[in-house]
Amino acid sequence: MVDELEELEDLVHVTVGDLPSRGYGVMEEIRRQGKLCDVTLKVGEHKFSAHRIVLAASIPYFHAMFTNDMMECKQDEIIMQGMDPSALEALINFAYNGHLAIDQQNVQSLLIGASFLQLQNIKDACCSFLKERLHPKNCLGVRQFAETMMCTVLYDAANRFIHEHFVEVSMSEEFLALTFDEVLELVSRDELNVKAEEQVFEAALAWVRFDREQREVFLPELLSKIRLPLCRPQFLTDRVQQDDLVRCCHKCRDLVDEAKDYHLMPERRPHLLAFKTRPRCCTSIAGLIYAVGGLNSAGDSLNVVEVFDPIANRWEKCQPMTTARSRVGVAVVNGLLYAIGGYDGQSRLSTVEVYNPDSDTWTKVGSMNSKRSAMGTVVLDGQIYVCGGYDGNCSLNSVETFSPETDKWTVVTPMSSNRSAAGVTVFEGRIYVSGGHDGLQIFNTVGF
């Protein structure tokens, strides 16, 4: 029998996979019974008994304390300064069973405790919990807390949320409670997601009026960071200039005059500080791409409209236009999409319709003075400009501008050349028209 055993493998491995977890469970039960505990953690009047070896094995802070001959390693009772008792108890229980319940009431105290005890996985879990529950009413407080706790990922997430939801955030109690320096820094940011600069003005004014007696003195500096030249002239005249806080402040009136001059005297625009005429752009929000009208494979004009969401990576159909349009001009003003002119398969069009993405509806607005397709379209100072195009007989040199406020098209100075299918862009307050053709020749020239 022995000889037969000797011929077999003389080494056998025995593994009990759940032994560590079962062992921790037994130690947790022993702790509940108050047995074999060799250390007590004290917070105020609260005391928690535990086993040094378990704390050292599960919590980096105690591992360093108990294995590096620190003074506390031989003490029977250790005072834990600045920790919430319920959070400490939960983290001690976590050391034994690996389970922790995070909720709205304990997340901050757990994050503070986890940071103190160097439990990075718990700290990360608390940050994720807060990140998923960001709201316009709490994001400023979460950002401040994240900065205090040096939670970079949570701080950045809160910042992005503030940028994306600035208008709603500006209506919160947290916003009204900000210090002047915090408000000034916020309204100076390029990344704010606003449909119009008017919304930033209203936010700043609401903050001042919340404690007018103490904050009125800060209004001139706040207005200097708001891009008043980007506000509509009507808003500057009827709202900003008429506000009693602005009217009684000489510096504020100067800033309003500067903004009005921007609209009245374009030649002075290069002298303005660059940031004042630079539209804000919330880079953390991906835009949507709209495909408007066009031609199908049979050459028929379409009224179909589709929108592409880069985040979802899919196209969806929108409400179709009321008129089929190819070679149509498109522009976006104040969050509304304009479809201008084009060709319906039989004739060139002067009609215009506007799409509201919130209601998924198209509405007809004022028609152009001329029928045109393949025109160049741009937006400048809240006005739509159409340049050239083709009216069915010849290329055009005429230029028209549309005011959404008055719903009227106005003919302005024509181009020096007749152009259709030209490229049109805006740069530093001027409209540049490049290339295109007049039906006989293709241009390589640029006009402005």
Structure description:
Keywords: Kelch repeat, Repeat. Pfam families: BACK, BTB, Kelch_KLHDC2_KLHL20_DRC7. This is BTB domain-containing protein. The strands form five sheets. Strands 7-8-9-10 form a four-stranded antiparallel β-sheet, with no helix packed on it. The protein has a four-stranded antiparallel β-sheet with strand order 11-12-13-14, with no helix packed on it. It has a three-stranded mixed β-sheet with strand order 2-1-3. The chain has helices spanning about 1-5, 20-30, 50-60, 60-65, 85-95, 105-115, 120-130, 140-150, 150-165, 165-170, 175, 180-185, 200-210, 210-215, 220-225, 235-240, 245, 250-265; strands at about 40-45, 45-50, 75-80, 290, 305-310, 315, 330-335, 335-340, 350-355, 360-365, 375-380, 385, 400-405, 410, 425, 430-435, 445. It has three domains: about 20-100, Potassium Channel Kv1.1, Chain A, CATH 3.30.710.10; about 165-275, Serine Threonine Protein Phosphatase 5, Tetratricopeptide repeat, CATH 1.25.40; about 290-445, Kelch-type beta propeller (Neuraminidase, 6 Propeller), CATH 2.120.10.80. It has about 450 residues and is an alpha+beta fold. The longest helix has 15 residues, at about 250-265.
